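May I ask for whichever protein you like with its backbone structure tokens?
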Amino acid sequence: MLSYSQIVRKDQEREKERKKELYDKIFSCYLTTILARDKEVVAVWLSILQDRCEIYLSKNSDWLDKDNKFIDNITKYLKNISKNAPAKSEDNERNFLVAVTLYCSTKLESRLKKLKDDIEFYGDDEHVKSFKDFFSAKVGDTNNTSTITISGVCKEYYKKIKKAKVESRIPSEFLRHIKKVASYMVSVIGIIKCARNIQYKSLFSNIQVFKGGPVIINNHPIYSWKNIIKRFIDEDKYKCFMDRCSEMPEVMERISKVYTDNATRKQQQLDGDDVKKYICSHAQMNILALIINKGIKSRVFIAVFKRCCYLCKLYTDFARKQGYNIIVFEPQFFTNYAFDWKYMKICSEWQLPHVEDNDFKARSLIYILKNLDQIIEKKLKHYTSSLSANSSDDNIDMYIKKFSNEFEKFEKYTLLP
């Protein structure tokens, strides 16, 4: 039987591990948000060791000079903030906020546009009206508001409605875009709070950042469209299916995109024998391959900016079956993915991760192909039953106050119509 002191020690160790995992997850999600500059997909894995913190970054495109400069700058600011903790380091905090806002401006403005469209579309909804009143009271001049200020106001508004427990009554699209716009100020404040925490001084003073890019293969042979579809339906049904698809411009556009040569930009034959395609490794798969190669089977959190595709989900499932305790999170919601084949995509440019264990690689491929047939069959059934030739759609807080002068550097945005 354990003594009282041993029980206390074990409880303290469990609590320490719980806090470490929470830090891993939240900090990774914050970083993922501020590292997605435009349309990139970024994945982050935070590895906390005894005397240092290793941050592994992966992206579905190359890291540009502006990316490297941004990462170097924010790393410097965070080290300085941590070094001065628990005292506040306003210059470094201001510089960090400015750097993030400028770097993320394209993505933030894209999300603001979606939020603005929601405000116009749901204009008569009581909660949208409530947000407009809240926003006007916070910023005063609604025609000349910095983008990061809007993010801060969305953060405060979401905090308010969450406390009132009225989320289920709010239009889901509007609420989702409120959260996405808010995520930038949430991430900035969250990262700074972590850096200020004296418990993490040793980690921030010894940060090591590792950046990985995609593995790209041009002109990789792939099966033709007809070859794949005819594995599940006969010739007559295939012709009928294609006739119905041809009357749906959106469907044909997606098929055309898959079978367009990236180099020549020419459409390849849907029934051709020599079809080639650009493929690349996905951001989170690069990190997962690294974890597998290192043989790390303790719990690992990977934050990824966008929802996983089918094939990433299947590969991650296989890795879990082999004992790898991997949890994938999306930053805006801080939750692991709930798999539903109807809402996830099969990416035509997906590449099998490069792992050193050939046996693992072979067995993972067998597992994916076995499950992929079932998924394609379900997708095909879904679209053949739903496609119709005549179908139609009738159907902030202190940061704002403290650094308000810095906001003059940012793009201004008119959110309310």
About this structure: Residues 244 and 387 are 7 Å apart (CA to CA). Confidence is low (pLDDT under 50) at residues 333-343, 387-395.
